[in-house]
Design a protein that fits this description.
It is globular and about 40 Å long. It contains six helices and no strands. The protein has 119 residues and is an all-alpha fold. The chain has one domain. Helix 3 packs across helix 6.
């Protein structure tokens, strides 16, 4: 995985999809931690560190331009916090190694498309 893309995709999930775990926590820190299985993303300064246009670009890339297999892996990894890892892998039709290889390939593809858009 590319650490910078991982952070951008985590922020995209937060910006565009209402936070981790699909909401329902009512703003409680403990409930949010429970919903996200202990994963907490802190946004500095009370907001996202990524500008909304990048979130919108990532949303468009994932939904329209990314290979279908890669898009499923991205959605499972960043948006589905209710399933266990082996359930995510099964949903994507692959094992652990292939799942993370696809996730890396998705990072590379998304980064390339973002650079094309910026140029």
């Amino acid at each position: 995985m590319i650490p910078e893309m991982d952070e951008m995709l985590r922020l995209w999930a937060l910006d565009m999809h209402g936070g981790l775990g699909g909401g329902g926590s009512g703003g409680s820190m403990i409930a949010e931690l429970m919903d996200s299985k202990g994963m907490l993303i802190r946004a500095k300064g009370g907001g996202s560190r990524m500008l909304l246009p990048y979130s919108a670009d990532i949303e468009l890339i994932v939904n329209k331009h990314l290979d279908a297999q890669l898009a499923v892996v991205v959605r499972e990894h960043y948006l589905n916090h209710q399933s266990l890892d082996h359930q995510k892998w099964r949903h994507c039709g692959c094992g652990r190694t292939q799942f993370y290889q696809r996730l890396h390939n998705a990072h590379v593809a998304i980064a390339g498309m973002l650079l094309e858009r910026a140029a």
